[in-house]
Amino acid sequence: MPGPTTMEHHGWPQDVGIIAMEVYFPSQYVDQSELEAFDGASTGKYTIGLGQSKMGFCSDREDVNSLCLTVLQKLVEGNNLSYCDIGRLEVGTETIIDKSKSVKTVLMQLFEDSGNTSVEGIDTTNACYGGTSALFNSLNWVESSAWDGRYAVVVAGDIAVYATGNARCTGGAGAVAMLIGPNAALVCDRGLRSTHMRHAYDFYKPDMASEYPVVDGKLTIQCYLSALDECYQQYCTKVQAAMLKDGDHRHFNLDCVHFAAFHSPYCKLVQKSLARLMLNDFLRDQKPDMAGKYAGLEAFRDIRLEDTYFDKDVEKAFMAASRPLFTAKTLPTLRVAKQVGNMYTPSLYGGLASFLASGSAKDHAGKRVLLFSYGSGLASSMYSVTVSQDVSSGSPLEKLCNSLIDLQKRLDSRRKVDPSDFDKSMKLREETHHKAPYFPVGPVEDLFPGTWYLAEVDDKHRRKYERKPLNSSEITSIGKVVENTANMQVRKGAAETEALAPSVATASS
Known about the structure:
alpha+beta, three-stranded mixed beta sheet, 15 helices, disordered N terminus, disordered C terminus
């Protein structure tokens, strides 16, 4: 990767967006069909009704800090970066383990050997929307007068857990890191961003002593769908104006985008969301094709969107009509969501990574991806990215796609855990949440190589972390233990510099 000394910094940076990505999820999961039986739920409730197959979860060895440490270091190592090349680092998370100290400041310990302390950014929090806000802030930084030519990095990480009951199956955990800068593989479409925010108590976490949220299930679905409507209508207005300015007089609809990714609390809601956009297109179209793609939908021509949130007839009709669109444009984005669950802030970006892993650089070149981000409370946005058309050897797009080509292999390498053991793990988390002092008991050997994990919480609630060694094929020695002013034990490779980077860079391809 080019460093700040080789990056041109003359005038407005071009093609700003996502250059590289890294995805991390826990090394263990519970099978949703087995969880149905364990919970006494009807067969298919989780797998068909919610569209989920597996749910990743963390033992007491992992917290939001360790997730973010792992994914950030993997991004840096996998792309031959120096920590000096990073001028902004912002974390999006709703998993709060300290009401004052940010996750970002914990991550700064990875920068210590480089001597780089000039790194803007901090944590951003609003339910599942924080990762998108961090991304927008980073894009704005690169396109501003404050930009100094270095990269921005966005880290989104969360652990989604629920109390015993019918919501527990919608949990998940993971983290995504994104490298932001000019000449990107995924270029964020300038001026094509819509936002809808308002006050709602659909999902919130008022109990500071608990990880569990308070959820109004019906309200949160209504809030999600109404935000989707608002954002899509705004986006359509903006993109239609841009098309007219370019002399394109086509009517904008879903046919104009190649893929559509959504924040995914569960996959069935995503399928309903794509159908919802088709409903919007149908009502917006002054001359709908009633003999073609809208055949059989005449009875819904005069309905109002706000009356349809829970209308099963409308939902069924448009899910059936949109099924080919869903299969082509959205299903490829659900690989991680279906097999890991709701990761909260990284959810949408796990969908983007799933899309990239579904094909080669040549398959994706020039495609436009529509993205919808939602966080309860509520905050939502819709925007789009256009995939670079440069598929030459060594191009950012080729490197990005190659880095995610093993995504399914990594998902398949996880360890399946019996639902009874999952239940015990959740009880342990509940009993030890914010306990100090505390020494985690989860087996380190079950973690993926290169994973940061919680080693200890001392009597002052200061957390110490260590890193599980990488595979012997990737690194031959693990170096010293360093303790800094934040009292975090950091196990680092003695060769964690340019000498190490070439061998690590091929590990994810």
